[in-house]
Every structure is written in C-alpha cells, then in structure tokens.
C-alpha cells in the first residue's frame, strides 16, 4: 500500500528513489547527507515520513501536531548532519528524537490545558470513548472506525514509557536493544515494561480480544 | 519449573520469537503446566492481531514540500562556513590579519638601522676633541659666552672651562 502510494506520488522517479534507498543503508545515506548530498536526505524522508508520522500520531493523538512534530524531527536530523557519527542505528537516533519531542509536546499540552481551564474542550481528533457495539451500528465502516479509535485510546491511556515501548515493539518492530537505547533502560527492564503494557491492554481491550476469539471460531480458524 | 512472575519477563520475547532456545524451552514447559499463563499467552497473540487493526495515517501531500521549504530557509554556509563552529578562532585570525595589515602600513621610522649607526658615529666622532685640554684651552669662542647667560648646568661645567681663573694659575 505504501509502495503504491509512493508510485502514485512520484511515478518512475519514486521507484528509482526506493530502489536506491533499499540498496544503501540508512547509515550510508546519512553519511552522504553529511557530505552534502541533499538527494540522500530526500530518500530518508520518503522512507521514514509515514512510520514517523504514525508513531507520533499514536503518541499525541492529533494529526496536525503529529505532522508538525515529524517535520521538526526531520529538521533536527538535517541540522545535525555535520555532527552525525554512525555510533548507533539511524532509526534509534530518529525515534529517540521523535520520542523526546512527543513527550515534551504531551507535557507542554497537559500543562497548557491545566493552565487554561479544567473544562477545556476535548481534542479535535478525540472522540468520546465508547465500546463498539456491533448490533447498534448500521454501517460496517463506522464500526471499524470505532474499533480503531477504541484501540488507539487504550494505547494512549498507557503510561508514557509503556506507550513508547509498545509502539516501537509492535508497530516499528524494533529489537529490544534498540528500544532499550531509545528509552534509556536495560533490556530486562524493557521486557518487564512490555509485559505490564500488554497486560494492561489485554484487560482494556478484553471485549475486542474475546470478539476476535469468537470471530476466529466462527471462521473456523485455529486460535 | 519457573514461577509465573519469572516467566512473565520472557513471555513477550517467546511470543515474538526473539527468545533464545533455552528461554523458549523454559517458557514452553511453564505454559504446558500453568493454565493461567497459557491463557494469557493466547490472549496476547489475539491482542497483537487486534492492535494490527489500527489503520495507518498517511502524511499530508504537502508534507515533503513543507520540510523542503523549511530546509531551504536554513542558513547556508559559504566558503568561510567551516570557521563558524569556531567563532573564537575566526575572531583571533581576523584580529591577527588586521594587526598585520596595520603594521605593514605604518610609516617608516626616521632612521634605519644603518642610519642610526651613522648618527651615533657623528655624535661621538668629535668627542676626542672635547676631551683634549690643549684644544679647548685655545678655543677663544668659549670665553665670549656671558656668565649670566650660562645655565646652572653651564656653571657646573665652568671648572673645566680653560678660560676660568683657576686653570691659568695652575699653569703659572
């Protein structure tokens, strides 16, 4: 889907970019950016803008803020290009910047909301938390949207560190060492953190988990 | 067999297939014997399927254009850009350069080294004459200098004046 989107946006140039991005490692691309190659920066931008925007959206739950923060992440990477040294994976660096920016944004926003009014209106992107009740919905799309929203809100309700750990583990599929570096904790502590986070989600999303169980049974799939 | 609490740390790595074989064996052994942990492991697998339902958010079409515009606004470094991270060095070098230019443009001193030596020689070349008593005693011009006009320094110098009263007396 991502590939199709890129094709649609960039045509044959996009295909060439993607092939180039695959053949050169992120570290090599970043070293080329350091040497003054702007095209390599564009390759990194194309490769990571969607994962980054999604990670930030799941953190701050506002599309405009997520895009602004993603822009800031890329800008910081660009500004720091001259000082870049490949001591860690590029993604570790990238998502560490993103995590710090997202946490700062959340803290600033929380402070601002407390400062303004305790009756401040709910965020634009946030719908009231409701359990999806299939029998009450007419449109399947609406049910799907509600399920997604329900899941997003459950993730957003996790403590900050647990939330970052789940997003990087589940959606970015990072290894434990990389996530531990981003969160500045030991791998052992990270595994405990992940267990507690998934345990909380298991309880919060129990209706969907059991529904998935029922769906699998109905479709005759093994659990 | 390990306790539930001990297994909980290894459970996620076991489920995402990143656990080593020893840990995997321990977890499997525990799950076979503990129904609660077995149920939890099954629920976690289903939970991950549920989490996958969340659709991706696509960045806006203007995302790339915005970031490129912001990068274009970034200050560019010229050929002296490499000095920017070291402003003190740049300042010191500028100061040194200015000092060199200033010193190079200073007007030349009145005497060069050779000229100074010549002046010094001129000053001392007649010194032998001044120290020669015979010459000085016959130098009439000195006797014409009025005593009142003489400065205290001149008065102090009087005893060596051959025109004074004392010297002829001695001679006599």
In short:
The complex is a heterodimer of chains A (223) and B (172). Chain A is mainly α and 223 residues long. Chain A has ten helices and no strands.
Detail the topology: elements first, then pairings:
The complex is a heterodimer of chains A (223) and B (172).
Chain A: H1 2-23, H2 26-34, H3 38-60, H4 63-79, H5 90-116, H6 140-156, H7 160-171, H8 176-183, H9 187-204, H10 206-219
Chain B: H1 4-15, H2 21-33, H3 35-51, H4 63-73, H5 87-104, H6 113-125, H7 127-130, H8 133-137, H9 152-157, H10 166-171
Helix pairs in contact in B: 1-2, 1-3, 2-3
Keywords:
heterodimer, A: 223 residues, mainly alpha, Rna Polymerase Sigma Factor, Chain: A, Arc Repressor Mutant, subunit A, 10 helices, 0% strand, B: 172 residues, 61% helix
Helix/strand/pairing category of chain A: mainly alpha
Instruction: Show the largest interface.
Output: A-B, 50 and 35 residues
Radius of gyration computed on alpha carbons of chain B:
53 Å
Q: How many β strands of chain A by DSSP?
A: 0
Cα separation of the termini of chain A:
27 Å
Strand content of chain A: under 5%
- Contiguous runs where pLDDT drops below 50 for at least 5 residues of chain B: 153-172
- From the 3D structure, determine the CATH topology of the largest domain in chain A: Rna Polymerase Sigma Factor, Chain: A
CATH class of the largest domain in chain A: Mainly Alpha
Q: Name the structural class of chain B.
A: mainly alpha
CATH architecture of the largest domain in chain A: Orthogonal Bundle
N- to C-terminal distance of chain B? 139 Å
Biggest sheet descriptor of chain B: none
- Can you give the mean pLDDT of chain B? 77
Gross morphology of chain B is: rod-shaped
Rg of chain A (C-alpha, Å) = 20 Å
Mean pLDDT of chain A: 80
Overall 3D shape of chain A = globular
């Amino acid at each position: 889907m991502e590939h199709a989107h890129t094709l649609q946006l960039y045509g044959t140039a996009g295909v060439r970019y993607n092939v180039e991005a695959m053949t050169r490692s992120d570290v090599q691309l970043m070293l080329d950016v350091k040497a003054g190659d702007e095209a390599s920066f564009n390759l990194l931008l194309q490769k990571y803008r969607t994962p980054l925007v999604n990670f930030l959206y799941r953190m701050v739950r506002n599309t405009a803020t997520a895009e602004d923060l993603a822009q800031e992440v890329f800008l910081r990477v660009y500004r720091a290009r001259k000082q870049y040294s490949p001591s860690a994976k590029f993604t570790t660096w990238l998502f560490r910047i993103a995590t710090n920016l997202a946490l700062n944004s959340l803290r600033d926003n929380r402070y601002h909301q407390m400062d303004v009014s305790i009756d401040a209106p709910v965020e634009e992107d946030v719908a009231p938390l409701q359990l999806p009740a299939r029998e009450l919905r007419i449109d399947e799309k609406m049910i799907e949207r509600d399920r997604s929203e329900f899941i997003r809100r459950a993730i957003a309700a996790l403590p900050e560190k647990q939330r970052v750990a789940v997003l990087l583990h589940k959606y970015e599929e990072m290894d434990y060492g990389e996530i531990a570096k981003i969160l500045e904790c030991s791998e052992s502590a990270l595994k405990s953190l992940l267990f507690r986070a998934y345990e909380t989600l298991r309880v919060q999303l129990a209706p969907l988990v059991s529904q998935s169980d029922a769906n699998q049974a109905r479709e005759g799939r093994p659990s | 067999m390990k306790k539930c609490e001990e297994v909980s740390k290894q459970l996620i790595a076991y489920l995402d297939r990143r656990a080593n074989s020893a840990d995997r064996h321990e977890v499997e052994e525990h799950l076979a014997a503990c129904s609660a942990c077995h149920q939890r492991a099954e629920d976690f697998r289903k939970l991950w399927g549920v989490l996958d339902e969340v659709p991706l958010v696509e960045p806006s079409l203007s995302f790339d254009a915005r970031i490129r515009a912001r990068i274009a606004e970034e200050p560019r470094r010229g050929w002296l850009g490499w000095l920017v991270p070291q402003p003190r060095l740049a300042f010191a070098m500028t100061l040194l350069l200015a000092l060199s230019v200033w010193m190079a443009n200073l007007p030349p001193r009145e005497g060069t080294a050779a000229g100074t030596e010549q002046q010094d020689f001129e000053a001392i070349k007649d010194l032998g004459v001044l120290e020669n008593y015979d010459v000085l005693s016959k130098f009439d011009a000195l006797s014409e200098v009025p005593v009142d006009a003489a400065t205290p320094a001149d008065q102090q110098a009087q005893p060596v004046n051959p025109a004074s009263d004392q010297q002829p007396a001695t001679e006599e």
